[in-house]
Amino acid sequence: YAREDTHYLLYIYDLMRLRLVNESSGDDLLLEVCKRSNEICLQLYEKELLTDSSYLYIHGLKENDLSARQLAVLAGLYKWRDGVARAEDESTGYILPNKTLLEIAKQMPVTTGRLKRTVKSKNKFLEHYLGHVITIIRNAVANANAFESIAEQLKKGRLEEV
């Protein structure tokens, strides 16, 4: 797959270089492209910082009217997902897509069987951390009181105040 994917890169490079040289006076365009490419390569990618309220900005949250208990589950799973993504050097969406994260938060499954039925499709990270995820959900449900005011603010559409 990788060989097939890169097979034509040198050919494309040659075509683009020739086109740049032919369409510019001297090496002006070619030097400009090399300069811009170098600047892009020097940019440092920084992962988003996880805060106590990061879960509030998940895509799809506003469309779901979540209770305090459901928000607590969402916050716990969001933090878990971020930790696993950093440890595995993967995107959070690959670890657990937002849609699935929200569905688990809405259903709040407290057994492994219910969690598997909620997710429906295979997820190797959920399978690997199944017991841990259930513990997160149970603890979140038990400690949901801290999310009451946030749930109320979300219902009133005043997320900015959180």
Automatic annotation (TrEMBL):
TM region positions: none
InterPro entries: HRDC-like_sf, HRDC_dom, HRDC_dom_sf, RNaseH_sf, Rrp6-like
PROSITE patterns: HRDC
Keywords: Nucleus
Stored Pfam families: HRDC (PF00570)
A biological process from GO: nuclear polyadenylation-dependent CUT catabolic process
GO molecular function, one term: 3'-5'-RNA exonuclease activity
GO cellular component term, pick one: nucleolus
Domain of life: Eukaryota
Subcellular location, record wording: Nucleus
Protein's UniProt keywords contain Transcription regulation: no
Domain HRDC, first and last residues per copy: 67-147
Record protein name field: HRDC domain-containing protein
Organism in which the protein naturally occurs: Aegilops tauschii subsp. strangulata (Goatgrass)
